[in-house]
Amino acid sequence: MEIILKEKIKEAVKIIYNSEVTDDLIQIQETRKDFKGDFTLVVFPLLRFSKNTPEKTGETIGNYLVEKFPEVSGFNVIKGFLNLEISDAWWVKYFGKMASEKSHLENCQVSNPETILVEYSSPNTNKPLHLGHIRNNLLGYSLYRILSGCGHKVIKTNIVNDRGIHICKSMLAWQKSGNGESPQSSGMKGDHLVGKYYVLFEKEYQEQIAKLMQEGMDEAEAKNSASLMREAREMLLKWEAGDNKVVDLWKMMNSWVYAGFEETYKELGVDFDKIYYESDTYKIGKDIVLSALKENILYRNDDSSIWADLTPDGLDQKLLLRSDGTAVYMTQDLGTAVNRYNEFKFDKNIYVVGNEQNYHFQVLKALLKRMGYKWADGLIHFSYGMVELPEGRMKSREGTIVDADDLIKEMQETAMEVSLELGKLADFSEEEKEDIFRKIGLGALKYYILKVDPRKNMTFNPVESIDFNGNTGPFIQYTYTRIKSVFRKAEQMGIHAEPDTLSEAKAGTKEIELIKMLRKFAETVSAAATGCSPAIIANYCYELSRKYNQFYHDYSILGEDDLALRNFRLVLSKVTSEIIYTGMWLLGIEMPERM
Description:
595 residues; Gyrase A, domain 2; Rossmann fold; Isoleucyl-tRNA Synthetase, Domain 1; 3 domains; five-stranded parallel sheet; four-stranded antiparallel sheet
């Protein structure tokens, strides 16, 4: 409609004012909610042709459109803005085309699709996944689906931080206190078991620091002098040197963690096309750093550590290799980026990483550009805010993290309690109930997290998220199952939706409002892809569900006597359910058929 209106307005200017007008001067936007109308023309750029006031110019053009273009049923002028009302007949005709679409993502397809890598999860192998990882995984996986839905070739990647001093802490604590404990002997998931020893290391390490400080050391000296930290550093050096015993221990404990991660990913409904390991990519990074050193892009300090001077870029001095030759995070990120580009020749590499790493990714891009990698402009840090519980911030080294597995289980149990209280599952088998509880629990968790602007910090409230009313996943799921229920009843009555006869119906106000909302789906998905924000789709799904429920409350569907109108409402319900389903699918949320 915007394209048609542009042409008609150009025609109006030519006939009324005898002037040719270029497309860039015709600015059309959706009418703001607090004004009557569907599309608004900004009149000010046309005053040069009318030689009149904005109000008079708007009225003249509005009258021409109403007279010559029957699709415009009315208008009003507010200062320099011409608000145009589109006829109900046009909206019904438009809906007929929408109802015949094979996929509601057809209109989201980009003209120039790109190869895009999306990196998410990025766990450490010294602890289980927690609530922060859940937000990371949900954002990354949803972003993959949204970008893919718009026609891009998207590769889901993960970088596992499986080496470094933090890994050695868990290994050392297990070596000292584990007594051969394993997931099999303990009955614990492997990632939980390893995380237990990470917490144990930190507890004993803090005790050593406190004791050394009592003996007169300052805090920094005590941290460096504590025997546990010295042993952990020695273990890291042995690992990088390929010591067989250390490497074997590392492989064993990492295998426990990977098995645990895989269980959590499966429960959460996310996966990856390619997993990278820091234990591999840091080697590539070290070679890149040493090569850049030879080319005088980097410099060696007096203690033999290697640095980059990024002060000309408005950044700082950045350590890339320690004096003992061991690598830092930045080293492996250099190696990972180069390795990925060589493998996929990506247009963009999106890093889904929390906002505490903003500076890190500024440095990464600056370093790669300094080293001559022109594709570094395609590195994008999708910086998201932290997530907390109402009780406050999580601290993994103190063992106060909100465990992902526990939270997923809690959400499903809460879904069960709420569903049973509503008393609508009496005729369901136990297997069906379990599946519904799982979908509702995970839907509540995913939606509550994804509906928030990803760049903002958020507080996750499990109780609020499971509510069947308001802006929640269960509310949208319930709306979807309500529509499916209508179709089950229609089938029992022998009634079928007929998209080809929609033009015979005379739609009411709520129906037209619903069509207008459905029309916004494609632009909503495109906006979410451009802005890397699943929240745009999440909140659209809520608004669409809310409008449908208003329509459902005010209008009879199967009980309507006018057969053309009954059919129209049935098709309208069908398309609404399809778009709700597609929108929630883009968020990685499963929809139950009944609940």
